[in-house]
Specification:
By secondary structure, the protein is α+β, with helices and mostly antiparallel strands. The protein has a single domain, classed as Structural Genomics Hypothetical 15.5 Kd Protein In mrcA-pckA Intergenic Region, Chain A (Roll). 20% of the residues lie in helices and 26% in strands. It has two helices and five strands; from the N terminus they run ααβββββ. Strands 2-1-3-4-5 form a five-stranded antiparallel beta sheet. Strand 1 and strand 2 form a beta hairpin.
Length: 80
């Protein structure tokens, strides 16, 4: 699954276009490297989001195309 779509499905970022813009601006890192929106996310990847005052670091647990809002947090694990 594409990185921008994963960020939207997992609800780490509200809209896919905003996720795409964040990737283009270099505010999204995957495994410590700046990632493009087209990066193929796989379990085990570590995603870092630097969105203004909000810095989030998560590990991808699973990748699913469709998931309910209440189960979205099961797609990742928050890292310290």
């Amino acid at each position: 699954m594409r990185l921008d779509k994963y960020l939207k499905i997992s609800r780490l970022i509200k809209r896919r276009t905003i996720a795409n813009e964040a990737c283009d601006a270099g505010r999204v890192l995957v495994n410590g490297n700046p990632a493009r929106a087209s990066y193929q996310v796989k379990p085990g990847d570590v995603i870092e989001l630097n969105m203004g005052t909000r810095d989030v670091r998560v590990e991808v647990v699973s990748v699913q195309e469709h998931i309910g809002k209440s189960d979205a947090t099961s797609l990742y694990r928050i890292l310290p």
